[in-house]
Structure formats: C-alpha cells, structure tokens
Amino acid sequence: MYPKNTIYITGTAKVAANDPIFAIYDMFFVGIILDRNNGRIIDVTCNMVRDVTSEFIKSILVNYNLEHDIDLIVEEIKDRFLGIAQKAVIAAVKDARNKYLMIKNN
User: Fold this and answer.
1) Which domains does the chain carry?
2) Distance CA 106, CA 63 (A)
3) What confidence tens digit (pLDDT) does each residue in 44-62 have?
C-alpha cells in the first residue's frame, strides 16, 4: 500500500486528566507515514476517542512537509482543532518531527 521510500514515525504527548483520551489511553500518540526523502506527510493515524476526530487531524496534516512546515502545521492546528487535546496534538507532532530529524541526520 505504501511505497518503499515511506517510513512510519510516532510522536507522543501527555494529555490532561480531564481529557477523554486520558481515561482510555493515558497519553496521546500520532503515527505519521512520510516520504523518507522529502518529509512529505502521506498518511496519519492517532488515538483520539472518536474516528471523526482522528480523520480531522489527518486532514490537517496530510501533504504538509514534517521537516519544513512545522510552523504552518502548528498554526493550522491552533486555528482549526479546538479540542481539549490541542496542546497534546501539537506536542506529539513536534515529537514525531524531532524523531524524523534524528533519523534523517544519521
């Protein structure tokens, strides 16, 4: 389904105790499939409580460049995703980006 040049990277973040994610998973994670060569996000999964929320997060992230577009990604999340887990989503995407940069630079 995914080309050989794609990789899967996860990012994690803590969530507030009043977030429904905390009751089920204890933390938030985002899984990002991206093109190893250019950093373009191909697909996304995350552990939101409702599928529609996961699909919404995916619609925000797909086609951005994880390496170069982080500021644009953060601004779009702040503008469009107004759920309790907003800070966790941003932190998890940044965590995934840091992992990608470490892999790319080694």
Assistant:
1) 6-104 (3.30.390.50)
2) 24
3) 999 998 999 999 999 999 9
